[in-house]
What does this fold into?
Amino acid sequence: MEATLGARGTTTQQVTSPQPRAMTRKQIAAVAVGGGALVLLVGTRIESVFIRTVGATGHQLEWISDVIASVVVASLTYLWLHLRISRAELVRSEGARIIQDEQLRMAAEIQRTLLPEIPPETRGYRWAARMETAHEVGGDFYDFVATGEGAVLLILGDVSGKGMPAAMMQSSLTTLFRVHASMTADPCAIASRMSQALFDQTGGSPYATAILARFDHGPHRVTYVNAGHPAGLVLRRSDVLQLESGGPPLGLLPGAAYDGASFDLAPGDVGVLVTDGVTEALEGIPLLLIQALEIGHRPPSATPREDCDYLLGLAASSPGPPGSEGWSDDRTALAFRVSD
It folds into this structure.
């Protein structure tokens, strides 16, 4: 299986206000000692100043000292109680953070196990896919189904939004894809049914962009539909075909209809499908076309996995569009090469 899933944390494009950091236990102890010393010092100073000011007698001095001592004890008690509460809150926050980190780790592991097994080769084609998430879990997805007639159905998509909600929705979409792919091999029909089912569930938000395609081997031919997704590319000798025909994103509109397209393929043709995390990093389609042409001119011995690595490597090294800061979107590439 040529499929991997990476997770890495990076600076997001939006600048957020820094979150206050919880005090450590050593810091709490230091504050307690320092605070107690400060209260005692201030109390003693106030007592000396008051005595000099009023010129108190011995009995009065004793009374004043008792009052000052009581104030100091009350202040120290308040400070001690406050620090105890702070320490308890610190313990609770540390526990909550540990639980959250463990939940995200488990979610990322589940997402990795749900990635489909893409065979390195089927009759007439060689395949690979690679996904890199910007955070622990992501909203990109792909799936791969071999039909009983020897054709291959695949989907590559991207759920709107980020984080856990997007990850949960992509799992639902792969289930919808497999259910409807078992009923029909027509990508347009699958897209229409998935879109309506998703709209009934979410009301239009979130939605998902996707490319659905069927690959036949006798003869080599691809039939596809593009649901609001960045155009896929098929490289034929010195020509580049863009997979653009389709309709709106899945689940965005009720009763959405899709118009697909198809064309013949020949041995040596190369195809790449990517999510917008790649196209945005490469500043859109024009630059991607240039880089894809370089893939098309590689020797026939090149593998689809190398094509995926090449595109994701370009995206990782690109500074991105003007005004962007860092990586905040998932990146996925799916590649195929037509064999004899």
User: Anything to note?
Assistant: The longest helix spans residues 58-114. The mean pLDDT is 76. Helices lie at 25-54, 58-114, 163-181, 187-202, 276-281, 285-296, 304-317. Residues 89 and 95 are 10 Å apart (CA to CA).
